[in-house]
Each structure stands twice: as C-alpha cells, then as structure tokens.
Write a structure and sequence with these properties.
The complex is a heterodimer. Chain A is an all-alpha fold. Chain A has helices at residues 2-22, 38-48, 52-64, 74-80, 90-102. Chain A is globular and about 35 Å long. By secondary structure, chain B is mainly α. Chain B folds into 2 domains: 39-177, Orthogonal Bundle (TerB-like), CATH 1.10.3680; 184-249, Helix Hairpins (Orthogonal Bundle), CATH 1.10.287. Chain B is built from 12 helices and no strands. Chain B has helices spanning 2-25, 39-44, 46-59, 66-80, 86-101, 107-117, 122-137, 144-156, 161-177, 184-191, 199-213, 225-249. In chain B, helix 4 packs across helix 5. Classes of the chains: A mainly alpha, B mainly alpha. The A-B interface holds A 10, 13-14, 16-18, 20-22, 25, 88-89, 91-92, 95, 111-112 and B 58-59, 63-66, 68-70, 72-73, 76, 91, 94-95, 97-99, 101-102, 246.
C-alpha cells in the first residue's frame, strides 16, 4: 500500500516536470497571456469530461494534432488562434493531461 | 622494528585524516546532518547551484522531453535523500529548477558561483560536468543550443577545455556504440516483459529499470568517469528497447 502511494507520488512529479518544462511558457497557470490559462482549460475540460480517462484521452489526442473542428474551446481559438502542432509524443501528452486533471492550479502558488 | 611501527602509526594517522576529510567533502547524510533546509541556503549551496544548471541544460532545446523529466525527477530524489528533510528539500529543489529553467541570462553567473564553491575539488567538477554532458546526450544528440549552454557552463566553471572535450568525445563515442536491439524479442527480454503484456505493464517495467540504472549524481562520488558513461549507456539501451516496443505495439 505504502509502495503504491510512493509510486503515484512519483508519477505526478514526472507529470509536473513535463508540464512545467513544456506548457507554461504559453499557458500560464492562472493568467491568460498569449494563450488560455491552465485553470481556464481545466475547467472547460472538466465540465465536458468528468471522467479522468475521457479527459486525458481527449486532451492528449487534441494537442497531438490541434484542429478547430474538434476543439471544445472555440472561443479561445477565436481569441488567440489555433494552438500550433508541437510534435510531442502522445505518451508525454497523456502524462501531462493526467497531471492537469489531478491538479488544482488555483490553489498552487506559482513557480511550484 | 621500532621504525616500522612508527611508520605504520604515522601512515594510519594520515589515512585517518584523509578519510575524515573525504567524509567532510562528500555528499552524505553525515555531512548535511546540521544543514538547515531553507530555500535561501539550498539555492546558495553547490547542489542547489548544480540543480539550477541542470535546469538550463534540460530546457536548452526549448522542451523537456519524457526521458529528461524522468532523469531529473530521479535526481531530485537522489539529492534530497542526503538532506535531513527529504520531502521539504525536494520541493525546494523543484522550485529552484522551475525558477531557473526559463532564465537564460544568468547561466554564466550561476556556473561561476558553483565554480567558486568547488574550486579546489577536481573530482566534484568532473562529476558535475559529466552529469550535465550526459543530460544533453540523453535525448539522442546534442543540439546547438545545448552545446552552447554546456560551453557557457564549462568556461564559467573554468573547466579545463581539453578535459571538457575529452569527456564530450567519450560520450559521443559511447552513444554511437550503442547497438539498437537487433530484434524485438531482445527488447522484450531487456525490459523483462512478455510480448503479450499490455503497454501499462511494459511502461511500469521500463520506468523501474530507468530508476534502477539512471546516472546518480550522489552515487557517482568517488567513482571514475566510467560510472556516468556506463549509467548513461544502460539508460539509453533501456530507452531504445522501450521505444522499439512502443512502435511495434502501436
């Protein structure tokens, strides 16, 4: 049980590193700068996909190949333009999506 | 006879001094037992400065890829475990990493400070530089921007240019010598999984192996340069096998 706990802790840290290393240059945690904030994206996705598996699947597939037709955030596309295709691996995108699903960014202080 | 005993006593005395000195300079729980864990203290310590430089190298090519993230998270564990309060240390190290990864203007300054802190410790200089170089190599090849960051760090550390190129060339040669597994069954064997296992199981096995064999900055103390190279090669081999299986399964 304890081992399980540590394993899951480690998994979220890995997701956190991937998220902080790759996403927040454009997607700030709470403020919208050149792209919607993560808090905003997370809320939108949570209201569309309450289930973690669906959330992760949709977000990672969409970011892998961003398309207007499949977007659930058309208002953001209108405001900031379509997200560029960044050629990340689907596996890494899944880790990041899971991290976003699990993390309440409005509670975290920045730089963490 | 009397002379011999005297010589042994003197020899023993020097050995003792040498031992206690290395205990003092090596990173260990013993050495850090009175260290007070604050962000300020850690940021100024050589390991804190080192983590800042790791952030610069990891982010040099604009992204932190999956294997880099994995290795950095193991580095956090390895370093935190020698401090009195590992979980607090780890969260501060993460803060330092996140603060520093997007700042490119202070690379030279931080490397200079680290250079001052470990000025008289040749083996630590080797150890740190070796770790940074392997991190740049881990995603396959060293990009121009990674190369530039490494050079900036090496010259600010006043690292001997010949020694730098020697380490660099050794890593390059080693990377070229890693033979990708000729067939997929060898890849499964290396990860210790079956062809019928699902991706989740295979991924778990892969990550466990990376954790076991990754280049460990604390463990590398007192070991020769070979340690870092062998750990990098092994990690690379595990990663290639995993990539091969991932491709075959998709």
């Amino acid at each position: 049980m304890l081992l399980l706990f540590f394993l899951s802790l480690d998994a979220s840290e890995y997701g956190s590193l991937l998220f902080h290393g790759n996403c927040i240059t454009c997607h700030h945690e709470t403020k919208a700068i050149s792209a919607p904030s993560i808090v905003e994206i997370r809320e939108k996705y949570l209201s569309a996909f309450a289930d973690k598996e669906d959330f992760v699947e949709y977000m990672s597939t969409w970011v892998k190949e961003p398309k207007e037709e499949t977007s659930i955030m058309l208002d953001a596309i209108e405001k900031y333009g379509l997200m560029p295709e960044l050629a990340y691996e689907l596996d890494a995108l899944r880790e990041i999506s899971a991290y976003i699903y699990e993390t309440d960014f409005s509670k975290e202080h920045s730089g963490h | 006879m009397g002379n011999l005993i005297l010589l042994l006593v003197i020899g023993g005395f020097f050995y003792w001094i040498f031992k206690s000195y290395s205990k003092y300079t090596a990173y260990s729980q013993e050495a850090f037992k009175n260290f007070s864990i604050t962000k300020e203290a850690l940021t100024k310590s050589d390991l804190g400065l080192f983590v800042a430089l790791v952030a610069k190298v990891a982010k040099a090519d604009g992204r932190v890829d999956a294997l880099e993230a994995e290795l950095v998270s193991h580095m956090f564990d390895d370093i935190s475990n020698v401090f009195p309060d590992p979980s607090k240390t780890k969260s501060i190290l993460k803060e330092i990493f996140n603060d520093e990864k997007d700042q490119t203007h202070n690379t030279s300054e931080i490397a200079q400070r680290l250079g001052q802190a470990i000025k008289r410790d040749k083996s630590k200089q080797q150890q740190f530089m070796g770790f940074l170089i392997q991190l740049a190599f881990v995603d396959g090849e060293v990009s121009d921007s990674e190369d530039l960051v490494l050079q900036t760090i090496a010259s600010a550390l006043e690292f001997n240019p010949d020694a730098y190129h020697a380490i660099y060339d050794q890593f390059e040669k080693m990377m070229q010598n890693i033979q990708p597994k000729a067939n997929i069954s060898d890849a499964y064997k290396l990860l210790g999984v079956n062809e019928s296992d699902d991706m989740a199981t295979i991924k778990k096995a892969y990550r466990k192996l990376v954790r076991e064999y990754h280049p460990d900055i604390i463990k590398s103390q007192g070991k020769s340069e070979k340690y870092m190279q062998e750990a990098t090669a092994k990690t690379q081999e595990i990663n290639q096998a995993y990539e091969m299986i991932k491709k075959a399964k998709s």
